Batch of 4 targets.
Target 1
Amino acid sequence: MPSKSSSETQMIGVVGMGSFGTAVANMLAEKNPVLVYARKEEVVREINETHTTSGRKVHPDILATFDPEELCRRCNILFFMVPSAAYFEVIRKFAPFLYPYHLIIHGTKGLALNLEEGQTLEKIEKLKREQILTMSEVILQETVAVRVGCLAGPNISTELILGHPAATVIASHYNEVILEGQRLLRSERFQVYGNSDIIGVELSGVLKNIIAIAAGALAGLGLGENAKGLLISRGMVEMVHLSKALGGSVQSVIGLAGVGDLVTTCNSVHSRNFTVGYRLAKGEPLAQILNSMEEVAEGINTIRIVNAFIKTAGLRAPITENLYRVLFEDLQIEEALQFLMKYPFSVDVDFV
Ligand SMILES: NC(=O)c1ccc[n+]([C@@H]2O[C@H](COP(=O)([O-])OP(=O)(O)OC[C@H]3O[C@@H](n4cnc5c(N)ncnc54)[C@H](O)[C@@H]3O)[C@@H](O)[C@H]2O)c1
Ligand SMILES: O=P(O)(O)OC[C@H](O)CO
């Protein structure tokens, strides 16, 4: 295994220079030099020559490369900031260059499927928990890395880029991952909390996207703040039950990465998931909305996976189930709302 000198360890690696990757790379660059990986040569050139990418400013202490080996050789702390749909491809590209000394933190709020060749979600009768992977589980499965963490919280990238105050959670089984994340990212404008329940924190960030799509739909219909309060509180209860069934703790859902991010995403016109719901409610077909979006709305893939899991686990998750039918089975939003208003929820909080 190659050894590393202490001076080399100061350079921090970031994989993926989309909205969130750029925001995080810029924050990291306030304290350490940063090397970012982008797969396209023209993006690498743009970052190195103009210190911008896709119209966003890039900190002058950030260099770019399209060589995964260089990134892994020069950085022993890596932040992976790519959408879940690209995760297996990206992780497998980096896996040959990763060693157990690497420390990896990811910021992806999506799920992946661990299926056999030729299997698809549609073909599976019962989707088991072990066939669903959070991104930390993908990293652990595909690489020799051990010290893995996630970063999740109310972190709309457009606000981070403006330097507005915010906070996040770094979750890991390893305290040193949390401490490194805090050391690298904490600033006067950015607070970093720790949590040892990595699965619960990942699931919180993943599941709130479903509720955010529903919140966008309510806003698109102009149904007001009472309805939103109702959705957010019932959405939180649904997230708790789904997260518990998938291996997360109640505490993580009611913390910053759960309720904190839920409130933010359900209220932000900058949220891609909220925007999908809003445009659906205005009458646009889902395919048209997704085709016109350059950035990923993770909730769409998440709801397919979670809906399949709900059936296997025998759970009831009325918001998720009804939203799935709106998105994929032609149920009208108004009909879904009527169904939810008649649903016999009777206990307010049933998980403590
Ligand atoms: N944007 C936000 O406000 C925000 C905040 C918190 C978390 N997140 C999460 O971060 C993740 C990324 O979101 P984003 O907003 O940066 O998305 P984005 O669509 O803006 O950017 C995705 C980046 O990944 C890169 N990428 C995609 N496929 C790739 C591949 N096969 N190989 C290499 N690179 C590839 C793209 O080139 C792009 O740079 C998502 O899971 C999202 O939920 C986003
Ligand atoms: O734009 P969204 O909907 O992916 O949400 C972004 C972040 O998850 C907010 O914390």
Target 2
Amino acid sequence: MTGRQEEVVDRGSGINRREQREQNAGKGLRWGPPWRVEGARPDTESDRWADSWRRPGGSRFWLVLTGLLVVNWLLSGLLLAPPQRLDVPYTVFREQVEAGNVAEVTTVGDTIEGRFEEEVTYPPRDQNSRPGEDALPPLSGQPRSSTLFTTERPSFADDGLMNLLLRENVTVNAEPPDRVPVWQQLVFGFGPTILLVALLVWLARRSAAGAGLSAGMGLSRSKARRYSPEGGPRTTFDDVAGIDDVEEEVREIVDFLRNPDRYRRLGARVPKGVLLSGPPGTGKTLLARAVAGEAGVPFFSVSAAEFIEMIVGVGASRVRDLFEQAKKDAPAIIFIDELDAIGRARGSGATVSGHDEREQTLNQVLTEMDGFDGSEGVVVMAATNRPEILDPALLRAGRFDRRVMVNPPDTTGRQQILAVHTRGVPLGDDVDLAVLASATPGMVGADLRNLVNEAALLAARRDHERVQMADFTDALEKMVLGAERKILLTPEERERTAYHESGHALLGMLTPGADPVRKISIIPRGMALGVTLQSPETDRYGYSRRYLQGRIVGALGGRAAEDLVYGDITTGAENDLEQATKIARQMVGRWGMSDAVGPVSVLPDPRTEQPLVLDGTGPAPATRELVDAEVRRILEECYAQAYATLTGHRDRLDSLARTLLAAETLDADEAYKAAGLPPQAPAEVAVPAGADRPGSDALTGRTGQPEAVAAR
Ligand SMILES: Nc1ncnc2c1ncn2[C@@H]1O[C@H](COP(=O)(O)OP(=O)(O)OP(=O)(O)O)[C@@H](O)[C@H]1O
Ligand SMILES: [Zn+2]
């Protein structure tokens, strides 16, 4: 793993993007690539769409749900629909009462409904029974017969109906005017909801044991996307560059998937599981897809996080489903991204809800993998950024017993990756990928891909025929530093910033072994008021104590310059202090670089967050105090050194600051010249690597929100 190479010191302040980078840190001082754009992986999504894929979960769930709703609707329609009643005039009704043919009535407002003892036909077939009504047109055309009737009582009727009914022994009911009884309203109003809730509860209960209906509803279906070898452009090893050693390790798998019989015949045990580990964006997914592409087998891709739902047991059945699908399509590859989402060591980590669910899912994966006897022709590939937190059970023989590290590419690797991604891009004659590769230490495949895309966008906006080197360098600068921002600084503030940056830069130039200064700028970018960029000649893999001290001196140079020139300090050094303190802390607690503390690792392991020393619960209070004292000593000594050096070179500092103030941006040559120093490094591209840290500037009231960033 390469370490972070370049240093950017800025004047500005606040939130440190590096924190997150450091979480990815393996061993050594690692400042992960600052330009790592989280979530900006345009390729994966679009590629996935472009490829043929299907998502078996889902559709069936909707089918079942629709079915339920239709049944619900039909039932409620049947039950709620009023029965067909004979609509009779009030006079006819009275007649029937007097004739003793009414068994029961129910009044709803002025409407009277009821039941005749014997069927009545209306309109009567013999029209002469009531001569008075002969002239009236019949209410409805065809005579109908029923024992059920309805009639409307005229509101002016004051005809002693009640007495009549009582006399005739008719049962009389009354109901509120809304016709649907309350119990029915409740049942049909809340019924569907109750039904669904009941179903979910039931599912939750039984899913722990099996798939059951949840399968029918698609809940237990794995959400894996399937890429078939036929559909879409195939990913091959040609698309993967710069990680040749890793490619070699997986070639055997390709061969196995192509000729499973040959391996079977010889009884060779082919790895069932391959664990790819490495920082984000290094091409783990790409590599797995390339293996599938090379072997011409289907590729099932799923993120481990997708297994987990709120409902316990769903994850396990999704795993089962995924393995079933893959076995059906064998030979095939199952790719599980972010394996750590389920593969975290059991009984460790925060006990969140869904803890059981995660364990069950993990157990299911283990069970499935144990179930293979190698003849299925299914290879499971998984990726993780944090192999060290995985449950050891996953790594046992017969599971993910083949482990492959995918490291960030070195310079040559970066050049090859750039070549892959510029295949379809018309390049100007001045574009030199080797130079770009050396200007991008710490960048991984995903970053480089992003860089090419940004450069192409820029070239298009500038109406270039081809993408030129300037497009690349500007794109790189923007990715690394953030877009330039139009904010108005007071002349005093600009001058102060110029001194601050000059302080960083001058110490970078004067400290032996420090990374050469590449660029200084007082154009506000992102959240910083100014930046100083330093990056090494070559990729660095480790750091010496002297080098780290130099870094701290440089980081404190901005504040020292302000202090020296103005006799006062500002909030602008917030990030510098944070960065310096972090380095010092790690020197003392992690790398044993403090004589007083000794060669002891006392910091919690940054990867597992478990305290390392001394009795396993963390350092004893005395050790802690000693660490703090040592960190403070280192910082104070470095600050004193920075202040002294700048004092001794006050003329260079003034000259550099003045030049910077006038020019706003200086590249390496200009900067060394302004400081009256010979250039140290062949200035290749005046582009850097490193980012300024966003933050808040309490002095000016500007906040660190990523608000409107205006590109010039
Ligand atoms: N070695 C490489 N060669 C060519 N392209 C690469 C390489 N590494 C990454 N890329 C590009 O970056 C994209 C993202 O990489 P990929 O998704 O494979 O990274 P990953 O290691 O799986 O990251 P994560 O851990 O975030 O899932 C790829 O689709 C590819 O375009
Ligand atoms: Zn600074």
Target 3
Amino acid sequence: MATLGIHKDFLLEFARLEKTVQKRVHEVFDKFREHRHAGLHLEKLENPRDPRIRTLRVNKFMRGVVLAPESGDSFLLLKVMAHDDAIAWALSHRATVNSATHGIELRDDIALERAAADVRYAAHVAEARLFAEVADKELIRLGIDPDLLPLVRNLSTEAHLDALRKILPEQQYDVLAGLAAGLSPEDVWRESVAAQAERAAGAAQQTPAGDELAAAMARSQGRIALLSGPEELLDVLSRPFDAWRVFLHPSQRRIAYHPSYNGPARVTGGPGTGKTVVALHRALHLARQLPDDAPDESVLLTTYTRNLATDLRHGLELLIPDEALRAKIRVVNVDALANQLVREDRGAPLSILTGQKEINSRWNALARRLGLDYSDVFLDQEWRQVVLAQDLRSPEAYLKASRSGRGTALSPLRRAQVWRAVEAFTRELRQAGEWTFLQVCAEATRLLEPRTDRPFRHVVIDEAQDLHPAQWRLLRASVAPGPDDLFIAGDTHQRIYGNKVSLRGLGVNVTGRSHRLRINYRTTHEILQWSTSLLDREHPDDMDGGTESLAGYRSVLNGAHPELRAASTKAEEIAELTKHIAAWMADGVEAGDIGVAVRYMQLGKEIAHALEQADLPVRILGGTHGSGDGISIGTMHRMKGLEFRCVAVAGVSDSVVPLPSALTPVEVDAQQHQEDRLGELSLLFVACTRARETLRVSWNGEPSPFLAAWRGQE
Ligand SMILES: Nc1ncnc2c1ncn2[C@@H]1O[C@H](COP(=O)(O)OP(=O)(O)OP(=O)(O)O)[C@@H](O)[C@H]1O
């Protein structure tokens, strides 16, 4: 059969078409399905830059653009656009082959010629040159076309490069953006070129001799998906918004489909860089590699909360239509896994204590009874972050334990007192037949450790930054150490549950197998830049002895700047927000595409009430209130893992964000106070980076101190 490729742009444009036009596109491209390419009526253009580019009629208003050489049997679906735009596009573009990756690139020659003149003019007044430090030889090695060198050499700022994003060949733009962000040519080679260049040789061997287009398409993974047959075309077109299923960026693909890692491997990256997407593809890769006799659920795909696990399950259903293959992967959050293991061992359900208020009040009562002058918050943190985190089981072990990360020193005498409190607390729980989830995790680990068999062959972890050491220990014990044992995706900038770990200390060594993603697919450049500026001065740990950074982190999309709105009272803020959301909807945004994030749910309920009064549909995330496709209102915590076209973050006022009750008082533990503050900042960052196109941040009275960085730039 002919080689059929589909360009990412084609799918994205198709996704935006009205349903009736989509249907018509289906009919036109059904010809491929019926192997009747001859009936496609590809029309030639007069004086095109590339004679292989043709157009075809979809309906009176729309045309498709296809790359189809005279000889060979390959077709590449490039665009589907309004009639005149399609003709103009087809006339000005040319398909070329990148000299480093050997994949196809599309060049807008006319726009590039114009841009070269503009940049030359701008260069007269600017002294600096963006790529002064990079030799021509390096640029060419990285795949920059020699005829583009004068243009590249004249660029003086990142903003100029940004302006060329849509007209430079995409692969070459990726390379230049990496260099402009400060990456070395070697880093750029490794991240953006190497995997494709290596694959080029392999792919060339699999394509029919003489069909150059087919060969180049095969080398263009991430931008062009080769369809194995007509069914795949139908499948891809049936879910056009889920481009991530077929168009992994080369930097994502090289991580997800690396044949085998010789031990734990990790992917990091800012929000929206596709870590979850990579984790899903890795789970698929691992499932495919299983031997035939591997039982179902040999691969574990896990995360921190139940809601996130539900999202992963949904993602897997989209990625792996084959039920038998999907059955090889078990998706469950860590606590639920622990609960199941312990429950099965005991033969009875466990009674689990989850409310933090209840836990604190028990610590409080206990401290009073024992006559100890420690606060409930202090005792609970000491238990979770020292005793459970290090799995300390005796007073001697606790006496010797490191308490790094805790801000108050404890003399041996005071440690003995605290241990007494911990013992009494856990004894009371035991007597009442109650557990906390962390205890369940520790118990599940204890059950697994002596076993020679392990429940899973591979474990893939998403949102890893939020896991507690007790949960890590359970995951470590769930799979035998060895190749492809653990695959870890996470971003410590988004740590919102205050759990810090050292992977190495937990026996998880990712040295040499750690990768960072830098391109954001979710959020516009403008929203990203603003949100990232909130974290400007923060360099969280990387869970492996170093610090994490957002260097080189960028978006491929552009849009409006975030809107920041002050109100004098809460009522005024809610009233303005309601009007604003109504305006979004009047502009055609669907209710299901709008999210409202708040720090505490009472405010969310008040907003829900106001929206309903204005006849706008709402749904409370995590609750039963409201209809399935209403405007989603939820806490900032609940927003993790979600994304919306439009996001409003409301109530970002000084007494609310950070939330005083979420901060350990300075006098209890100054260091913990700082950590909690950073957690609150990360929470705001997470909420803001859920927006795909539009972000609105509002407050009443004084704004949150976290907005100070932005206010300084006003
Ligand atoms: N290669 C790709 N092509 C198209 N869309 C992509 C690609 N990779 C990721 N996306 C989309 O970008 C968005 C963010 O992806 P994902 O949720 O995997 O990122 P993340 O790094 O896990 O984000 P976060 O850390 O904020 O949870 C999703 O809508 C996803 O479908």
Target 4
Amino acid sequence: MIYSATKWMIRRLFMKIRVLAIAPYPGLKDVLLDVAGQDEAIQMDVEVADLHEAVPLVQHAQRQGYDMIVSRGGTATLIREHVKVPVVDIPVSGYDILRVLTLIKNTHAKVAIIGFPSICRGVAEVSSLLGLDIPSFAVEHESEVTHALEQAFEFGAEIVLGDMVTIRNAQAMGYRGILITSGKESVADMLGEVHRVYEVHSKGQEKVRFYQQLLDTDARGIVVMDEARRIQYVNRTVCHILRQAEEALLGQNMMLSSPALANVIKQAGESRQSSETEHYVHLFDEQYKVSVIPRETEGRAEYLVYLESLAKWRSERRFEAFIPSRLATFAQLAGSSPTLQKTVHRAKKFAESDRNIWISGERGSGKLKFAQAIHSASQRQQEGFYIISCDEMTEEQMYRLVFGTAQAPGLLQGGYAGTLYLNRADRLSPQAQESILQLLRGSRNFRCIASSSIAMNKLAQRGDYHPDLIYKIGELHLSVPPLREHLEDLEELIRGLIAEHNSQSGKQIVGMRETVLERLTQYDWPGNLPEFESLIQEMLMMTKGHYTEWEEVQDVWERLVQHAGTSGTAAVYAQIDLSGTYEEIEERILWQVLQEEGMNQSKACKRLGINRSTLWRKMNKMLKNKT
Ligand SMILES: Nc1ncnc2c1ncn2[C@@H]1O[C@H](COP(=O)(O)OP(=O)(O)OP(=O)(O)O)[C@@H](O)[C@H]1O
């Protein structure tokens, strides 16, 4: 408090109070300049204007940084409605009344006074002291003046005393009016009031600045919008989140500033809840919780919106979920073959609903890509897309992710919403299945999309999979075809890969020769798109001219065929039975590779990408299981 008082004193020592005076009649200008000229703390400019003429002048003055405006009577009242800076009245003092009464003292004409109640009281007081009988007609508003004048003239008045509005109307009606002018004493009183108001106002401004600072340093974004969703207030955090300057946002419709946020706020409005509602939105790769609070200020509806970043939670990496920076859309799925288009059509239909989906398909067939496209086309597109790699999470990790810990809330407690992608959902342990099941039963914040390379019905037969979970996630089922079932799409996929390669390498490849393409379509692609992509990328690296020539890539091709034909990973994928638990499948792969390598452990290790001790450990376990 001491600090702000001192600060105020220092300011007062060095700065003058800038005042614009609006004089409703010319004579007041000189009095104002004369009296204000004697006050060193005041710098006053004067304009002569009455009522509506004054409005543009004061609006301009406000922009020019005047601290205060002074005026008189009806003009002061009108000005107050149009500016935010304080407006001080030039009063009509007892001296002013005494002067005008002295002026009319000896007249034989009947006199009446019309004015605001305070003036009428002053006149009644002074006239009774002087022994004069002057009836008064009090008005509360400028619009009542004509009626008051009519009453006064009916009463027999020939001269009316009043302010500028009264005098002008009386003259227009053909009567005489005498203006009660403000003298030096009134102007001096007004200047005293200017000092008092300035002090109070400055302290108020200090407070406003203090609260402004508090709001600006709040980590939450704070927005106030009117009923038409025009932005009335934003704190600095919002400017940072939306990457726009305050000036650009204020007065702007939210739909133009941030359509994503506007949609969420619209949803909140449409939910017709009068209390706070919570939503989630994805802005510039960040997930935010949006709380919308409808309220009313001075009879007008308003929305108070809080934006809370969830980045803190994510950066703590409490769980193995993440938000990919760019998600695929249906338009980005290459392939116009009837087979793929049938799948796309089905997926688009699924995107319209919010029901859970089970996607099955061979490894690398594009399940994740389809899940992303569904999310991007769904009503949850503004929310997060979270991938849970089921084969990489322990039961405990899954439990903590769903139910939280003492330190951090889990998915079930809220704070996240969107699409939950369970990658390789068939690898969930029974315990982890239970956690996911409880999450889906207890929260409506997520749509779940699970993926597996095993068909859903096979999973149901496995016995270690919770039937309720299959039932809950498998509300809708999408089967993504392997690449060999839509080989017509290879050329389109190649075009995309060439474009990407050219942009990275600076080459100008325009296509592949027929001889190369023919071979590509004669292959089964058991490793699906990842296998295809890596081969094409290698071929493009070998390409020197505009076309990929067979001679340039023959070696690459033969290596692939040899690998696949003899013992390659691709062949293993094609022949291995993928039913059963992860351990059982792993066992089968191990045996297959060992047999193909003539039980040569070094060769098997090399192909499997593991060291000898790991192979030993696994073989021992296998033997134990068999005995
Ligand atoms: N229709 C498509 N157009 C272009 N690229 C695609 C398409 N579908 C998949 N891909 C690409 O193929 C690769 C594998 O796709 P994705 O990860 O979606 O397969 P997946 O079936 O989910 O794999 P996994 O079973 O290993 O989890 C990715 O590089 C992806 O970008």
